[in-house]
Amino acid sequence: MNPSTEADRLRTALNRAAHQYYTLDAPELPDAEYDKLFQQLQALEAAHPELLTPDSPTQRVGGGVLAGFSPVRHSVPMLSIRTETDTTAAGAQAFDARIKRELKVAPDAPPIAYVAEPKFDGLAINLRYEQGLLVQAATRGDGEMGEDVTQNIRTIGQIPLRLIRGEQNSSAQLTLLPSEDSARGADDWPIPAVLEVRGEVYMRRDDFDALNDRQREKIAAGDKTAKTYINPRNTAAGAVRQLDPAIARQRPLSFFAYGLGEITPAGEGGPDFATHWQVLQALKVWGFPVSPLIEQARGADDLVAYHQKIAAARDSLPFDIDGVVYKVESLELQRQLGFVSREPRWAVAHKYPAQEQLTTVQSIDIQVGRTGKLTPVAKLAPVFVGGVTVTNATLHNELEARRKDVRVGDTVIVRRAGDVIPEVVAVLADKRPPGATEFTMPSTCPVCGSDVVREEGEADHRCTGGLFCAAQRKEAMLHFASRRAMDIEGLGDKLVEQLVESGAVKTLPDLYKLGLVSLTALDRMAQKSAQNIVDALEKSRHTTLARFLFALGIRHVGETTAKELARHFGNLDAIMNASTEQLLQVPDIGPIVAQSLHTFFEQAHNREVVEQLRAAGIEWKEGEPSAAALLPLAGKTFVLTGTFPTLSREQAKEMLEAAGAKVAGSVSKKTHYVVAGAEAGSKLEKARELGLTVLDEAGMLSLLSEKA
Ligand code: IVH
Description:
Elements: H1 3-23, H2 31-47, E1 71-73, E2 83-84, H3 90-103, E3 113-120, E4 123-130, E5 133-139, E6 145-147, H4 150-153, E7 194-202, H5 205-220, H6 232-240, H7 245-249, E8 254-263, H8 276-285, E9 295-298, H9 299-313, E10 321-328, H10 331-337, E11 339-340, E12 343-344, E13 347-351, E14 356-368, E15 373-385, E16 388-394, H11 398-404, E17 411-415, E18 423-427, E19 452-453, E20 461-463, H12 470-481, H13 493-501, H14 516-520, H15 527-540, H16 545-551, H17 559-569, H18 572-576, H19 580-584, H20 591-602, H21 604-615, H22 627-630, E21 637-641, H23 649-658, E22 662-664, E23 673-676, H24 682-690, E24 693-695, H25 697-707
Parallel strand pairs: 2-13, 21-22, 21-23, 23-24
Antiparallel strand pairs: 1-6, 3-9, 3-10, 4-5, 4-7, 7-8, 10-13, 11-12, 14-15, 14-17, 15-16, 15-20, 17-18, 19-20
């Protein structure tokens, strides 16, 4: 095949594959095959530079760094849309009423036909094609003059470099009302000599998140110039106006077409469109992505329904929108309606409540949760965002607060999308007041003054105050009283709140001091309800060890673990005095739970609470410890090393485990015994270093017989 034909063939195949991949999202060519053809074309073009064409897929990569963007005068001005700020259904009704008034239609005339579209939150672009070839891409600018951003726009895979005449397999994407449009095919829309396509360049949310993940990795790796991006819209706009196409290429952008600029008139061989809907069909046939969310609508009711439907879908869409756009469908009616100043009378943008707003940080408070977790919360100057007034935004933890570097006095962007809790997205660094200091977590609990700790590998700071911390008390009390714990009927949210706030109850044991007198003294507490509480408290005194343990609210000790502990140890004193090694013997208890239990019972104030509860008359039937807990070597950890004279390593292990011991693989200060045979190496050395007890096989056997 001659090189020119071959280059043609490769370009056509690659452009077709790109359209299927990027625009139709239905790839037919395997990636490896695409790469192979791409390399063939590159080689061919390198050998025959005269064969290079501007629509070659090898030319998407962009050129060198630009000094600036050249101005472009739009041959047809890029208008803006009038905005309907009433975000309720009335906004759609007002538009329909206005259109009917301006068109002077009779009240009983059939409803007006519209096309309803999402209002994409990106930036508007004009794409100019001459003889089917992309020759220029320009930003909107002031509507008259934009900037030439062709180089960067060429890197967007969804934008065809050459128009195609694809099939109209689009009815699956666009929901057509029964009309003559559905009968139209590719043949009805020949490619015009001059075509300007208008649409929105945007960044998908997943692409935005992935980009920010990469930025965070760079920051973590110490890259001082790296920063995270604020939102997809600004990032897309920044990428389009990026002077270095190599950088622009690293920002994955997408595109939706929604209109036309200049086009060869029907009288001169251009397509003869009657409706905006037909325009959208043709755009798809020519190879552009058109949003599948665009719909035909009839009358105000359809517009209202569309506004509500898209609002409900808003948060789960793969991209940001800030409203919907209604357009009169008939191009003839559009012409009749005309323009006022720079806005067409035939279209309106019907907004949704903004999901991001600017406000200032008045203070950063620390909240203490049920498990003692400390959460920094930014107190904000009240701001209406995402449909509600927001005054608080969680900063999650110290790491997050520092990563965003939120300081008191800062101007910040808050975001509230859907029912998600409000978030500080970013700080406007240039608005920071002088002297604002970096946020740090307090080293003592702001509520009870206990030490604050951050466990290794954890992002959260915690108050060590436990049941003594007032902030934790209320939640601890609710948990204590809950049905699966002490099951104190009637001790709910409201009552606990009253009891804690009035100071009547400071610790769990105080609950059992409540009598009719103190209860009836509370607001809205009738004699009868007070008596019920007293009865419920009395009833709860007779419980089980498992319920009592669970009720204490020890971190990581759920209902199942509490039952296992009760079964294994039989009585509370054994649990309170158990070493972590002994706790580890309990089925399903790992190091984290064991450590948590051990730490809890190490605290004198927690022991005191337990004693006071017992003194208040809480009782249960203590059982016998399980067989495992009674084994002679329960709670002891052994390490075996070297070769033994009579036993194999496996046999020795079995004997030790049968006696309740645990056999570990490596030596640490938690090891109780090291059993060493011939040629014992580093483990024996380490045992000596740590001063552990070292036995030989005979020593181990006599320990076993002596304990048995
Ligand atoms: S049509 C004459 N359709 O909204 C109407 N615009 O304020 C021309 N936009 O700059 C625009 N989604 O960036 C139209 N489905 C949509 C749109 C849309 C977003 C943006 C566009 C334009 C702005 C108008």
